[in-house]
Amino acid sequence: MDRLDALLQRFAVRTQMFHSGALCGVHDFAAEPDRGQLHLLRRGRLEVSAGRGPVQVVTEPTLLLYPRPYAHRFSTDPEGGADLTCAIVRFDGGTANPLAQALPEAVLMPLAELEGTGAVLEELFAEAFGAQCGRQAVVDRLFEVVLVRVLRRLLQARRVDVGLLAGLAHPQLARALVAVHERPAQEWSLAELATTAGLSRSAFAESFRRTVGCTPGEYLARWRVGLAQDHLRRGRALKWIAGEVGYGSEAALSRAFKAQCGHSPREWVRASAYAPLARARPNARPRMAGPVSDRSKSLAMDGNETLVV
């Protein structure tokens, strides 16, 4: 069972290097709309400050991931500085992407924790600090590999307590989540999901709510509407989308969509800065210096009826 494949296939993540080399003194990284940042410290001492939290001092090679827009400051020795390579992180769908939502606000991880990634990091640093042809393309792809390794590590170490990643780290809930991710159009019942997880209906419902932070029906509705949003951004027809994500008609999808987003699909498309992707603004480098409907709450606890989403 691959806990990440369906997520990454349906909601891709892309990276783009914007800096490699020494940083000396104080540098502010602005919060850019719908973009995160990923930094790899190769050498040096780094003081990291963000928000109102305490200053963190990093003295070993370390990964610093900010998956959502988040202003932060790096302070280094004015003379010796620190060697870093940095990348923009873009999740398809922006901050509405399930992975972007599930990740902690910030992840600080020594590179030594990324088991089996030594050769990838060595190649990434060699390319980032070198001058070979095609350097940007190579480094961008290697950053994406590193990011997937980070997700793996967070799952293996169970570093996230509540939310999607916590559910995927749970040996039984993960089976149900992966099934929903892979087959969103299926008419799932609570009983079917509980059986998939290998739990009783009551144990599954309680464990899911406690670990993921919502009911199975609520999660299924959010997942389906998230997929519908992705299809809408790509300019696909609403009738086709309805069948693809598990709704029998455009009207049914529109009702579920409005319950989640507060707008009909067409209203959302008009208001969305993403739709369609073909009209998206060119990439720019960063500056350095839903409510749930009453129907979706009505899980049939006898487990024999389809989840109403």
Topology:
Elements: H1 5-10, E1 13-23, E2 26-29, E3 36-43, E4 46-49, E5 56-58, E6 62-66, E7 72-75, E8 82-91, H2 98-102, E9 107-110, H3 118-128, H4 135-157, H5 164-169, H6 173-182, H7 190-197, H8 201-212, H9 216-233, H10 238-244, H11 250-261, H12 265-271, H13 294-297
Antiparallel strand pairs: 1-8, 2-7, 3-6, 3-8, 4-5, 4-7, 6-9
Please explain how this structure is put together.
It is a single chain. By secondary structure, this protein is α+β, with helices and mostly antiparallel strands. The chain has 2 domains: 153 residues, Jelly Rolls; 114 residues, Homeodomain-like (Arc Repressor Mutant, subunit A, Orthogonal Bundle), CATH 1.10.10.60. It contains 13 helices and 9 strands. The strands form 2 sheets. The protein has a 5-stranded antiparallel sheet with strand order 1-8-3-6-9, covered by helices on one side. Strands 2-7-4-5 form a 4-stranded antiparallel sheet, with no helix packed on it. β4 and β5 form a beta hairpin. The longest helix has 23 residues. It is globular and about 65 Å long. About 8% of the residues have low confidence.
Question: Which features does this protein show?
Answer:
309 residues, alpha+beta, Jelly Rolls, Arc Repressor Mutant, subunit A, 2 domains, 42% helix, 17% strand
Put the structure in a nutshell.
The protein has 309 residues and is an alpha+beta fold. 42% of the residues lie in helices and 17% in strands.
